[in-house]
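For concreteness, we quote verbatim a single protein encoded this way:
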Amino acid sequence: MGIEFFTRLPLHGETEYLPGDPRNRGDWTNNENIENTGAVSNYEVGDDFTYIDYLSQVARAAEINGFAGALMVNAPTGEEPWTVCSLLARETKKLNFVTAFQAYHFSPYNAVQTAATYQRATGNRLVWNIINGGSEVIQRQVGDDLPHDERYARATEFLDVVKGYWNNPSFHYKGKYYSAEGGGLKYPLNKASLPIICTAGSSEAAREFGAKHADYYLMRAEKPQEIASLIADVRLRAKKYGRENIKFGLSIDTIARRTEQEALAEAQRFLDEAAEKQRLHAAAAHAGLRSARVLSFEKEYAEKDGSKNVSDFFIHPNVWSGFGYIGVPPGVALVGSYQQIIERIQEYNSIGIELFFLAGYPHLEESYRLGEHVLPHFKKQRQALQRIPEESKYRIA
């Protein structure tokens, strides 16, 4: 089975220490009467070296170390992903950029025109991650009051229209959320390739949306048998739409070190810091801010409330849920020696994961650790991302 590796760019500040620590790189900490000491942590608009320059370092390091792309997480408190993608694309040569956005953020034609322009300028290096909001509270904060399942229905129409526009110079459509009366990409914008499409979410609505439209269905890390079950379910749903080749991706952090003891010590450092700051029950504080499915290991956090024993949070060999326990997304990390990390990647790959989003803290240093000690092991297996061939239904005869 093929395999490919992407990483992540920290659009909302670096996390060498827990979020809010004045030693972190980036100006996301604003503690009164405490001086920030991290790189660009005192950034002011107009400074010669800014946080975007740090992100550029991370992006170039990812490319130097053999990652094929970088995920840009979309959060209301972070930099805007499409803008950052555009800024960094001209500073890299082959790195793909995965921009996360919601159908709520763009009209279908605006998304098509913007993406086509980007693709032409970068050699088709844009990947879309269509998200639909994991928190009802945050959705309302940004002005979107559609209920959870309706957001997925809207996103389904959004991509129907996007694909129609992309494949036709004159596209017509009438739906509940969108309509089109003759618009579409024309020469030379239609030289560009529609971005590869990723999506995530484990609700019924999310699975159906991914089954119909995603080239890559992305998942949060959990126990391998649970991942395998979700893969089987989405594959079965995809067959209803005549889609036999849907692929699967996994987002998981890493604490990769020369020895297992060194990796465990680093994981323990995060727990000790959380204990010092009285954040050993942070996961509970986030419970009301999301509508995503609660994973099996998350249900066990209450039983471990207050624990600062690193061993309490392994849900599978080298698969550590301690980040989720202290409120650091995506919540799960591969923790171990370089060889152990390789073995766990092989295990997840064997059950159907072909695209891995790997990142650690700080992102810059972890990129080098993974690039020098883990990624080279998979050189012969690696395969570039590919679009799933679409039916001709988006074309007008």
Q: What stands out?
A: Residues 76 and 142 are 8 Å apart (CA to CA).
